[in-house]
């Protein structure tokens, strides 16, 4: 698979994931207690024997760069790499920031025009799924396509928020409707069950095929399209234009896939992973999800009630705590008699020293972690938060959107405590 280059697009602002993206890029957002979103596409590439990978970055990318640099290293004999391509100013080239996904690739064409590259795989950095890209390459080669796109069956209700494809009997994409809202638009792209089954997927009440935003190009096709147009985005411009002038083939995918582009999607995806039968497993020995090894001690707890939850390494959980349907991230420090329910805790990047703890005591401010007697329910707690005693982060008032000056923002009805926030004893949502 040395003739394939993978490009992971990680340069967007991630505004819909704010405040989780206030201090980091979207692919660097923590996931499932110990991973980051970028680990998903990079692990899929490695498991598919694709080890020539570029990650395109732009906004707030320091933590993403650090994570990739510390995690993904290949041996000297296979020629593999994960390289970061940050927006940069060079001699005679454009000095603009990336204006979109296609523009980001255009500004880095020299990296995909290397000798020996025949195919370019375009991936998003904010999706949760497991895919063998070799199967997609096989579909691409057998169909003789210029471009192959991964598609997943969805219901008509879900189709209204996605890009939906129309196919001919051979699986060639012949039409595309972005977020169809009317019955007339939906009728253009619905497919009978027998046609779906001929593509290798079961209907099960789903009669539309949505774009997953995963594209495989012949290298020369991609270079030609980007050099001859000023299109800035793959989904909105490159893909629809390719349908009209190129052979675009579908690669059907029928497994778990979640686009984690909003606070609500992030919250629900994390909690689903803590269920007794999660829709996505991190424990697949044949196709593991990789992340940085941290060499942390086992989690320490006593007289704690835990149900339907994930608890990562290095945590210390006080007596009398109740943890239900939640994700507890690395190095989480939780005081006694704390209740955590339906919540996502991202943990911490470090343990405080004795001197730091003494400073907190002298200044009467909460140390790193969650103080005794606090209640966290239906919330997201970002990393490195200092939450005092008897704090109540529960949306009792049914708020949809609100921002507080202590680093708490309610988004889609979900209270989010931003990274590094300091919340005093006894604070609650008002």
UniProtKB/TrEMBL annotation:
Pfam families hit by this protein: LbH_GLGC (PF25247), NTP_transferase (PF00483)
E.C. designation(s): 2.7.7.27
Keywords: ATP-binding, Carbohydrate metabolism, Glycogen metabolism, Nucleotide-binding, Nucleotidyltransferase, Transferase
Membrane-traversing stretches: none
GO molecular function per UniProt: ATP binding; glucose-1-phosphate adenylyltransferase activity
SUPFAM superfamilies tied to this protein: Nucleotide-diphospho-sugar transferases (SSF53448), Trimeric LpxA-like enzymes (SSF51161)
Coiled-coil segments: none
Limits of the Nucleotidyl transferase domain: 6-273
Swiss-Prot/TrEMBL GO biological process terms: glycogen biosynthetic process
Protein name: Glucose-1-phosphate adenylyltransferase
Gene name tied to this protein: glgC_2
